[in-house]
Amino acid sequence: MKQLVTQWKWTLGTLAVLALIVFATIGLTGKSDSDEDMQTAIQKSGKLVIAMSPDYAPYEFRTMINGRDTVVGSDIKLAQALADELGVQLVISATTFDNVLNSLNSGKADLAISGLSATPERAEHYRFSTPYYEATTVLLVKKDKAATYTSIASFDNQPIGAQKGTIQNTQAQEQMPQANLVALTSTSELVNELKSGKLNGIVTEYPIAAGYVAQNSDLAISSVSLKSSGDTSSNVVAMPKGKKSERLKKTIDKVIKKLVKEGKYKAYIDEASKTIAENE
Description:
With 280 residues, the chain is of the alpha/beta class. Helices cover 41% and strands 26% of the residues.
């Protein structure tokens, strides 16, 4: 009898371990870690999970629609177009910008779309789509100080800010070395610091700056702009690197090329900017 009990306990213990192994091989997106490629796994699951930082108007931002807090923007439209092409439901995983790419590593998301740039450092760990938008880097300032800041040199020894982990933060470090740069987690934090007088400028993309100007009559876009960094100034979709994402990348690139060729992504930005102005 003791031997049977021991065997029974061993069997239960083995089953428990096997169950843990099975659950461990299933990512947080609900896709099994099998030999199938990502596109097949996404279509089988019926959902496309995309990580975004929804404080980046007009790309992705929160607004009230019919009394509900909703994430909208040009990148949301792009994400929906990708989900439609795959024939699955779109699921947005909202996070901070510096955690957007980490969501791919942890399996919390299939893709990352958040005004991302394909830097050489990121390319070592992630696969990127063809670019879908390129924006100028500008400085957002207080409207009553716009005439003061007319050159990069005018920001020397002045406190300026950029969003942590962005290409704009790198551009500010490289092109504005005499300014006192502060990197914060979100653009909304930076804007609060600018409005309170703790910062004299924010280095960001033109559409982002235009979005905040539409919402804040006391802000303006400076005449100063920073030099483009080539391909690293373009927005791309990020995905896990490896053979399993090859087919998915081809599908994403096909959708992006069509949207860009037809001028639809630019129209998405214009539509999002209009939404911002209407909710001012």
